[in-house]
């Protein structure tokens, strides 16, 4: 769910009170953070329903005495609508709790697997000097990613990952970095990005971790 700061930001967005700088930040979150976008949409729907309820209730207050039966009927409908709204919110909260536990389980499995295969990646008996330089670059990138990941500097880890992934890599090296892409996406709340990386692993015949990728993918 939206925290207090995010809720206030969403409220001011719908009230058209955001500054230019805040609007740029808000739009960036909406575009790049799927979970945040869904929460804002839910908040917007709930806000719209409440505004409608209040508006209808105000109109009902000016009904004349001879229209009281209609007013009571309208109030009853509003009550039902409000109950439905509460049930909707409760269901949303329960689903989020369930989904959070599910994602935490997926994160733990992915993290454990990624770190375990990182210990065996990029080993070779090739004596070619150029090849050794490439291997060293990959090791340094992996160490930097792991260090930033353990210190929760996910943006820095992702930056290093994108840089190394843009270079020429051995298949086994690219496979391990794809798994780091899954882990970082999950930590940043980007389930869509994580599933995209898992699909890449599942579709590569030369990768040895296709079954594990499919197992985790099916848990979403």
**Count of alpha/pi helices:** 9
Structural class: mainly alpha
The main sheet comes to: none
By DSSP, the count of extended strands is: 0
Radius of gyration: 25 Å
Mean pLDDT: 80
Query: Which strand-content bin applies to the residues?
Result: under 5%
Outline the low-pLDDT stretches.
62-66, 122-133
**Total domain units:** 2
Topology order in helix (H) and strand (E) letters: HHHHHHHHH
Fraction in helix:
over 70%
Distance between the termini: 19 Å
Shape: elongated
Question: Mind explaining what this structure looks like?
Answer:
This protein is an all-alpha fold. The protein has two domains: 4-61 and 68-98, no CATH class; 102-217, no CATH class. It has nine helices and no strands. It has helices spanning 4-14, 20-32, 34-60, 68-118, 129-150, 154-165, 171-187, 191-202, 210-217. Helix 2 (20-32) packs across helix 3 and helix 5 (129-150) packs parallel to helix 7 (171-187). The longest helix has 51 residues, at 68-118.
Short characterization:
The protein has 9 helices and no strands. With 220 residues, the chain is an all-alpha fold.
